[in-house]
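Lecture 7 notes: from sequence to structure.
We start with the chain below.
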Amino acid sequence: MGLTSRAKMVQLGVEDMVWGRLTDAMREEEGGTVSMADYVHPRAEPEIAFLMKKPLSSKVSALEAMDAVEAIAPAIEIIDSRYKHFKFDVGVVFSDNSSSSGFILGQ
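Predicted structure tokens for the same chain:
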């Protein structure tokens, strides 16, 4: 998920969050070495990862959402962008996979 703060939404002139895909190929090993050569100008963002045991419908209660969670883990998302200093408009951010580039998943 990106652009989740109201301040960032106002800065970029958008009304909703964006999201990108994280794939198995983007996973970096916990405790391993991340090669800077694989990225343009990466940044690290601390995250909380949720392993879901079942999908959620579009509208659920907090209790239904928690019931769908199998596990929670610490994570680091590696964001990166082909655009210098992450300067882009909302249309371009989608083509850049919302700056989603890699992740490290804790135990």
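Points to note: Residues 3 and 9 are 6 Å apart (CA to CA). The chain has one domain: 6-105.
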